[in-house]
Design brief:
The longest helix is centred in the N-terminal third of the chain and has 43 residues, at 35-77. The chain has 17 helices and 18 strands. The chain has 579 residues and is of the alpha+beta class. Strand 10 and strand 11 (267-274) form a beta hairpin. It starts with 5 loop residues before the first helix and ends in a 5-residue tail after the last strand. The radius of gyration is 51 Å and the shape is elongated. The protein has helices spanning 6-11, 13-33, 35-77, 80-88, 94-113, 143-151, 192-201, 230-238, 275-279, 286-326, 341-380, 383-400, 403-421, 430-448, 474-483, 518-527, 538-551; strands spanning 118-125, 130-133, 137-140, 161-163, 166-173, 184-190, 209-213, 220-222, 245-250, 253-262, 267-274, 427-429, 452-456, 467-469, 492-501, 504-511, 556-561, 567-574. It has four domains: 78-190, no CATH class; 195-282, PAS domain (Beta-Lactamase, 2-Layer Sandwich), CATH 3.30.450.20; 330-373, no CATH class; 381-574, 2-Layer Sandwich (Heat Shock Protein 90), CATH 3.30.565.10. Helix 10 packs across helix 11. InterPro entries: Bact_2-comp_sensor_kinase, HAMP_dom, HATPase_C_sf, Sig_transdc_His_kin_internal. It is found in: Cell membrane. It holds the Pfam family His_kinase. It comes from Marinicrinis lubricantis.
Length: 579
């Protein structure tokens, strides 16, 4: 009988598959239940997106048209004949005046014919006290109109100026003298009927309508007068709305409103559409939405049951077998008769248990034996070096003929080699290792008692029974003698101290040698992280490797400059529960 906990059900693949299926089906179910509402929103959003794109394109196109008209205005400002007429009018005879005016009229008519948005073009020339129109020709100078255009009129921050319920573009030609009025002003009056036609073209439905509006002056231009009564209600609601698409209730109807604004023109274009126009084609889908929803719920039930039977139950058998294997039961195999993918997994699981039983002893024990063999090999590399130094000291004493010191030395040497050869233990108590190292310093005192002083502190009681690999301290002391103290012309000093911390024991060996520079110290430190061995530092590298093998990362040798001036070697032993 399968026992299924609530926590395992929440985290199981079965639940995830069912939830995944729900996540796939649920949007379709909601689509079936709320198809009418969703379709209405989708249609509204699509219409809104299309309308927004069309409105933006309309404003850009209108702005480009206004830019082109402004270019024509500025080009007209630079016309040599016009400027000559404005400046030298008094010096011309009647023939020249008529010829210049006819040329200007021809130019104005050419510009008017180039754009359907132009109603008329006016040249208000102050110096000749005349106004020239492309439609009406030469006429009396309109001073009030000239002053209004000169002051800028009502522009609402854009290109277009509002005047007499129509839109205008104007630009002035200044004489360049401070305080003087412009020589003449070029004014283009826009064709309002053509603008209305362009607004009617952007209405996508017969029920929709559009209008241009200036939010500051509230000037409006509607495509049709039929919906003109909606404009005041839009103006009232527009200040409260921040989106470019919103709903507007007016006259008992609900309208979808879209708008776009042009900073260059200072105008917004607005279009509105009754929402019933959007929802009219969608009423037929309600029944189909409910039918689809019921069908989808039935599909979820069938999928959940089949997933539980064909996936959830076989997977639970496999999971429970893995848990028994994690608890150490490697002899419990799965009994099965399935021929599907789970049958293959069960068969491979049983084969894996058999191989684990065969390999666990072979691989695990072989790894332990290899580690122990490496430890012994590293330790054995040190012994020939000790033997060489011992005979070197004995040879030096024999040359001096000091029989008493030879006798003392041979006794200490016997104790020294007895420590190495008395048994095959890999580890000894730190107390014995320190005793052996102190014996080595006593041996060296026989050679260097006059110029090398030794401070060898007493080992703290709490550190005496720590188990350490043999020969990890004496080679460090030997290295200090061989590479530093023996070569010093002045008096040498060797110090061995101890520091016991929680879960850590430190042994510090330092000297006052003066041959070690920073670059050499850095090179020595880097050798401990390298795999290759150096001929000069073989003993220290081996010691570091043995300590790391025994106590793990964080233990080993750490080199730095001593406060005495020479090398400081910190032997760190990280204590663990099994130590």
């Amino acid at each position: 009988m399968l026992k299924i906990s609530a926590n395992s059900i929440r985290k199981s693949i079965f639940i995830r598959l069912v939830i995944t299926h729900l996540f796939v089906i649920l949007p379709l179910i909601l689509l079936g239940i709320y198809l009418y509402h969703w379709s209405h929103q989708n249609a509204s959003q699509e219409i809104s997106r299309n309308m927004q794109a069309q409105l933006s394109y309309y404003l850009k196109d209108l702005n480009r048209e206004m830019e082109w008209l402004e270019i024509q205005q500025f080009d007209l400002l630079q016309d040599s004949g016009l400027n000559e007429l404005a400046v030298t009018w008094g010096m011309m005879d009647s023939v020249e005046k008529k010829e210049k005016i006819n040329n200007i009229l021809s130019r104005l008519n050419s510009i008017k014919s180039s754009s359907a948005y132009i109603q008329d073009i006016y040249l208000h020339i102050r110096s000749i006290n005349r106004t020239i129109s492309a439609v009406q020709g030469l006429q009396e100078f309109e001073k009030d109109r000239f002053e209004e255009l000169r002051s800028g009129g009502s522009r609402d921050g854009g290109r277009l100026m509002i005047r007499d319920d129509s839109l205008h573009l104007s630009v002035s030609k200044w004489s360049g003298r401070k305080g003087e009025e412009p020589l003449f002003i070029v004014e283009i009056e826009l064709n309002m009927e053509r603008l209305k036609d362009s607004l009617r073209q952007i209405s996508m439905y017969p029920e929709s309508s559009s209008f241009l509006i200036s939010e500051t002056s509230k000037f409006t231009l509607a495509s049709t007068e039929q919906w003109a009564d909606l404009i005041p209600q839009y103006i009232h609601a527009a200040d409260k709305e921040t989106d470019d698409t919103f709903s507007l209730d007016a006259g008992g109807k609900k309208y979808q409103v879209n708008r776009a604004h042009s900073d260059e023109l200072g105008f917004s274009v607005v279009t509105y559409l009754p929402e019933e126009t959007v929802s009219r084609p969608l009423s037929k889908f309600t029944l189909w939405a409910w039918l689809f929803s019921v069908t989808s719920i039935g599909a979820i039930v069938i999928y959940a049951y089949s997933t539980y039977k064909f996936v959830r139950k076989p997977l639970l058998f496999l999971i429970q077998s893995f848990r028994r294997m994690e608890e150490g039961a490697l002899n419990v195999q799965i009994q099965h008769e399935q021929k599907d993918e789970f049958g293959y997994l069960y068969h491979r699981f049983n084969q894996m248990l058999t191989k684990l039983q065969n390999l666990i002893d072979q691989d695990y024990k072989q790894k332990l034996m290899m580690q122990k063999a490496e430890l012994k090999q590293l330790q054995s590399q040190i012994n020939p070096h000790f033997l060489y130094n011992s005979f070197f000291i004995l040879n030096s004493l024999a040359k001096t003929g000091d029989v008493d010191r030879i006798e003392l030395f041979t006794n200490m040497l016997g104790e020294y080699f007895r420590f190495i050869t008395r048994n095959g233990e890999d580890e000894v108590c730190l107390k014995e290792e320190i005793k052996h190292s102190r014996m080595y310093t006593e041996i060296q005192k026989l050679r260097f008692s006059r110029r090398i002083q030794v401070q060898f502190d007493e080992l703290p009681v709490e550190m005496e029974q720590i188990r350490v690999p043999r020969l990890i301290i004496q080679p460090i002391i030997e290295n200090a003698y061989e590479h530093s103290l023996e070569k010093m012309p002045d008096e040498g000093f060797l110090r061995v101290t101890f520091d016991m911390k929680p879960r850590e024991a430190d042994i510090i060996v330092e000297d006052n040698g003066n041959l070690l520079d920073d670059a050499h110290l850095q090179a020595l430190s880097e050798r401990f992280s390298a795999t290759s061995e150096s001929q000069e530092m073989t003993g220290m590298v081996n010691i570091h490797r043995r300590i790391v093998l025994t106590y793990g990362e964080g233990s080993g040798l750490f080199l730095s400059r001593s406060v005495l001036g020479g090398l400081q070697v910190l032997i760190r032993i990280k204590q663990k529960e099994e130590n």
